[in-house]
Amino acid sequence: MARYTGPKAKLVRKFGENIFGNPKFDKILSNKPYGPGQHGAGRKRVSDYGLQLKEKQKLKIMYGLYERQFRNMFKKAERMRGITGENLIQLLERRLDNTVYRFGFANSRAQARQLVLHRHFYVNGEIVNIPSYSLKVGDVITVKEKSKKMDVFHNALRVRKSNPYEWIEVEKANLSGRFMKLPERSEIPINVNEQLIVELYSK
């Protein structure tokens, strides 16, 4: 299944939250706090399977993964020590595109993915253009010198007033940041019940 390319506002209303992180969707949700379509405002009964599938779709779309990518990441999380659902969330947070977004260098994960693909970032002094690149503790991410004057970075940082995340360190003046530690699940601000995803894949 390909990555979703339709109207993002429709998905935001479907899930009832700003899953893309772009501030423009907050206004849409405040104006239309119900699902899309003719019967969007009605109450719908959802099965257990439907709830599990919805959580998987929400998480997959939130981080911008293809179905095969997501399934492979889940399998990797299963092989790791600890709780599978928490491992999955942690692996998603370690992605380079997500970390660029968390730094405040982009207004959304989709924008961060595009910036990574266009080779605007160094990781430990080496150009990396793979959005799914998995960061390790201590890795330093820096905007390429020739790219530091681009408005996209400064506009995004104006929206982000401070760094609210415990596992990263950001230097706005240098447009750089460090992946300080692996985040705990309680520190990651996403509204997802990952246990439902584990139950879905366990069938």
Short summary:
The protein is of the alpha+beta class and 203 residues long. It contains 9 helices and 5 strands; from the N terminus they run αααααααβββαββα. Strands 2-1-3-5-4 form a 5-stranded antiparallel β-sheet, covered by helices on one side.
Describe this entry's structure for a reader:
The chain contains 9 helices and 5 strands, in the order H-H-H-H-H-H-H-E-E-E-H-E-E-H. It is 44% helix and 8% strand. Strands 2-1-3-5-4 form a 5-stranded antiparallel β-sheet, with helices on one face. The protein is an alpha+beta fold and 203 residues long. It has helices at 8-15, 24-31, 48-63, 67-79, 84-93, 96-103, 109-117, 151-159, 194-201; strands spanning 121-123, 126-127, 140-143, 168-171, 176-179. The chain folds into 2 domains: 8-92 and 190-201, Ribosomal Protein S4 Delta 41, Chain A, domain 1; 95-181, RNA-binding S4 domain (Structural Genomics Hypothetical 15.5 Kd Protein In mrcA-pckA Intergenic Region, Chain A, Roll), CATH 3.10.290.10.
Report how far apart the termini are: 20 Å
Strand order of the largest sheet: 2-1-3-5-4
Which sheet architecture does the biggest sheet show? Answer: 5 strands, antiparallel
Order of helices and strands: HHHHHHHEEEHEEH
Poorly predicted parts: none
CATH topology group of the largest domain: Ribosomal Protein S4 Delta 41, Chain A, domain 1
Query: How many E strands?
Result: 5
- Domain unit count: 2
The top level CATH class name of the largest domain = Mainly Alpha
CATH superfamily of the largest domain: Ribosomal protein S4/S9, N-terminal domain
Helix content: 40-55%
